[in-house]
Write a structure and sequence with these properties.
Helix content is 26%, strand content 25%. Strand 2 (19-22) and strand 3 (25-32) form a beta hairpin. It is globular. It has one domain: 60s Ribosomal Protein L30, Chain: A (2-Layer Sandwich), CATH 3.30.1330. Helix 2 packs parallel to helix 3. The chain has helices at residues 9-14, 45-62, 83-94; strands at 2-4, 19-22, 25-32, 70-76, 100-104, 115-121.
Length: 136
């Protein structure tokens, strides 16, 4: 098992890891759009979503995976007016990977406009894929 820390003070305070890899399964904790090194928070939802991915991609890389291996996402946005900006970033990052996704409007702490959590399976991005449509 591998446990990854981003250096967020909340990880130590709440007793959790940014990511945990158990075999080929990788869980990345709910990640806010803050730069954990500088503690800077972009003012808009798009900037925060991109910052989420900076942390998520680093956590995945630390255990030898990437966004290509993501099989599921959970996205939390408190203000429905920010959904389009966040959805656009998700499309930029996941179009062609197409993981399952849950998108929820829920209150977040402080000035956070989005938090994103992912689950990856090492090697999923290289696996043969068969697409099935429920409409066929």
């Amino acid at each position: 098992m591998i446990k990854v820390s981003s250096g967020s003070p909340f990880e130590a305070r709440a007793g959790y890891s940014r990511a945990v890899a158990v075999g080929d399964l990788v869980f990345v904790s709910n990640t806010a759009g803050i730069d954990y090194a500088t503690r800077e928070l972009p003012p808009d939802a798009r900037g925060q979503a991109l910052a989420c991915f900076t942390t998520i991609e680093a956590a995945l890389a630390a255990v030898g995976t990437s966004l290509a291996d993501v099989v599921s996402t959970r996205v939390f946005v408190p203000d429905p007016d920010d959904w389009d900006a966040v959805i656009d970033v998700l499309g930029e990052k996941f179009r062609g990977i197409d993981p399952t996704s849950t998108f929820t409007a829920t209150p977040l702490a402080g000035a956070y406009k989005v938090e994103i959590e992912v689950t990856a399976f090492r090697g999923a991005g290289a696996a043969a894929t068969r697409r099935v449509s429920l409409r066929d």
